[in-house]
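FAQ: What does the model actually see?

It sees only this:
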Amino acid sequence: MYENWDNPLDDIRGENYDARSTPIFVLAIIILLLSIGGLIMSASGVPWYYQNGEAEDYDECCLDAYEDGYVDQLPTIKMIVAPMTAAFVLLICFSVPLIGLFFIPMKRWLRVPLTALFGLAILTNSIFMLRRFTFMLSNYLEELEQASIRDVSVDFHLHVMPYFFLLVSLIGLVLGLNVVKSIRPETRNKKTLE
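And it is asked to produce this:
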């Protein structure tokens, strides 16, 4: 029953250190790198879509909407094509502590809730990112449908950033599902209050 709080190396060798998960660690590193890449891509003006044969990013989209008189449609355009800087920053803020938890020796009763907290935060953020992508995709499919009804060519196509957004959100969902799988209590093997 006695647990040694003085020497964390005893816990590394014992059963209290088994709450580490290598897939969660690897996916958290991938999320961190992709989020940093997403911030760099968004700041450097990587295009979100093609409009009339030209690649455009968020700034060009909204400035054109103001100049063309589409002010009433601007909230919809912002909702569909808005840059996701906040989502990338949140993913960085949640994945860094999750990576740190892999290296810090601590008791299972402390590691599991912290892993759940940061992992489920990444999962929630990824769900909202996937939701944003579905808005972009539905807008694109609506444009294709309208063009086929009118029998005209389509002048609107998605570019790099929406698909990068989809990739990051799917990896975040896999990470979140791994966290959910890893935090389930193992009541069959151990009698514990977790």
